[in-house]
Amino acid sequence: MNYHYIRLDDACEFMDNHKWMTVVEFMLDRGVIPIIAVIPDCRDEKLLQYDYREENLNLIKNWQAKGAILAVHGLHHVYTTQVSGFYSFREAKSEFAGLPFDEQLEMVSHAKRIFFEVYGEQENWIWVSPSGTFDKNTLLALKRNGFDLIIDGYSDAPYKFKGLNWIPRQLSGNIIRKKHGIWGISLHPNTMSDHDIELFKQFIDNNIGCFEYNISKIFAFPFRKRGVKEVLYDFKASLLMPIRHTVIIKLLVNVKRVLLQKSKRS
Fold first, then answer.
1. Residue 184's CB: how many other CB atoms inside 10 A?
2. CATH code reported for the domain at 2-224
3. CB contact at 8 A, 23 and 193
4. DSSP 156
5. Helix 17-29 vs helix 55-65: angle between axes, to the nearest 10 degrees?
6. For the chain, which residues make up each domain, given as ranges?
7. Cα 129 from chain centroid (whole Å)
8. Cα gap 72→159, rounded to integer Å
9. 130 near 170, Cβ under 8 Å?
10. pTM score, two decimals?
11. What is the pLDDT of residues 7-60, one digit of tens each?
């Protein structure tokens, strides 16, 4: 089994229409069904820089009508705590993790209510946490609010855990092909450069066979119980994550050093 799916994050009234239309419509033209993570009530200052366009909601609904699958992406997409949550090796910033259960329950309920008013009832209620940070209270709040699926975790196949079905998302911004298993790639069209988009198109065209199954078919796969394999995948991710952060930090330090040296010479 070898299947890849694409998740596109941060769709809302505030987004770069041109980039989103370029990416989504290219995928739909190729028969590749995206999962679009929609922010119900965006208050993220980084996204508020884009012009408010109420018609974006109709654009998203039009993509849904063409087969795109929508997911609820938090509530406001604003970080309220400095907590990593369930995956302690992830960056310590969260909209949900660390908050009391009752507060999270209301936030998830509010997010679903807004989403339902715009996009209607969903065949599967899917959740995507901003920055991938959440805790056990978040999972319980999702279950209480009738969510079926969460797109997160590390594995080579879908699994069940804490009363929810999990579809793993292992690659973030890394457009590469894997040889075995189900691999989710999450991208942010708002921040993709023209070069990024061209590389993305090339990847789709060169690996179209990886996307031959409609993403909705994954929902029909047998979801095994989370076991040793998932624990090992989590452990591997925990080892790799600090390495990535260390490499990036060292790179930034070296770039700063070079720039300082150049400024002194001039």
1. 21
2. 3.20.20.370
3. no
4. S
5. 10
6. 2-224, 227-266
7. 7
8. 20
9. no
10. 0.84
11. 999 999 999 999 999 999 999 999 999 999 999 999 999 999 999 898 999 999
